[in-house]
Amino acid sequence: MSPKLIPADIAIAGRGTHARVAIAPGEVVAAFGGYMVSGDVFAVLPAQRRSLSIQVADDLYLVGPDQPDPNDMVNHSCDPNCGILGSSVLVAIRPIAAGECVVAFGGYMVRGDVFAALPARRRSLSVQVADDLYLVGAAQPEPHDMVNHSCDPNCGILGSTVLVAMRPIAAGEELSYDYAMSDGSPYDEFDCSCGTAACRGRVTGDDWSRPELITRYRGWYSA
Ligand SMILES: [Zn+2]
C-alpha cells in the first residue's frame, strides 16, 4: 500500500467530494493512494472497487483502499474544477528529520542494451546507477518506485540506491529528488511541472553537468 495524503480541506458529502474551504488554482486537493495492479488483475475485481480506482498507465491501475477515503470519491464532470498532475505521488506519513533514510530502491540490474528494450513504463520506474547500469523496479510498482522528480527536491542520493532527506520533511509533503542526481543518459527526459521557483522547465540526461546543480547538490549525487 502506498502512503496516502488526505488533505483536511476536502470531505465526502452525499455521493461526491466537496471543498470545505476556498481552494486556489494550483493547490493540490487529492493524492490518489492504494495499490497497483495490471489490467488482468484489475478486470476480476468487484465493480465497486474498480469504480473507486484510477488508470495510471496503459496496463496499470491504482486500486483504492477497502474503506473509501475522500480521495476516492472525486466524481467525473464534463465541466470539472480539477485536473491531474502526474499520475501518482509518494508522500511522508509522519515528519522526517534531515539525514533520515526514506527509500532504498530495489529491483534487478541490467546493462543499457537490455534496459533500452524494456517497455517505457518499466524504464520510467527505474533508476540509473552507473554509466551502463540500470536498477529496474518490480513489475508491480511499490511506493518507493513513485518518487517524483523536483527541481527543488527534499531528498538526495546516498551511494546509488538510497534516498535520504536533505532537510526536515513535514507529514503530507511529497517526497522528491532531482533526477539530475542519478541520471546521465536520456532515458527519462520530460518537460517538468514541479512548479518550484527553481524549475528548469525541461529535465534531460545532461542536467547533472549543469554547474549550478553540481554546486547545489554537492554530496548528494549518485556515486
Ligand atoms: Zn521542475
Structure description:
The strands form six sheets. Strands 3-5-4 form a three-stranded antiparallel sheet. It is built from five helices and 15 strands. The protein has about 220 residues and is of the alpha+beta class. Helices cover about 10% and strands about 25% of the residues. It folds into two domains: about 10-75, no CATH class; about 100-215, SET domain (Beta-clip-like). It is globular and about 50 Å long. A hairpin with a 2-residue loop joins strand 8 and strand 9. The structure holds zinc ion (ZN). Zinc ion binds near residues 151, 192, 194 and 199.
In short:
With 223 residues, this protein is an alpha+beta fold. Helices cover 12% and strands 24% of the residues.
Helix-strand blueprint:
Layout: E1 10-13, E2 16-19, E3 35-38, H1 39-43, H2 47-51, E4 53-57, E5 60-63, E6 101-104, E7 108-111, H3 112-116, H4 120-124, E8 126-130, E9 133-136, E10 148-149, E11 155-158, E12 162-165, E13 176-177, E14 190-191, E15 202-203, H5 211-216
Parallel strand pairs: 10-13
Antiparallel strand pairs: 1-2, 3-5, 4-5, 6-12, 7-9, 8-9, 11-12, 14-15
The chain binds zinc ion.
The site of zinc ion has 6 residues, from loops.
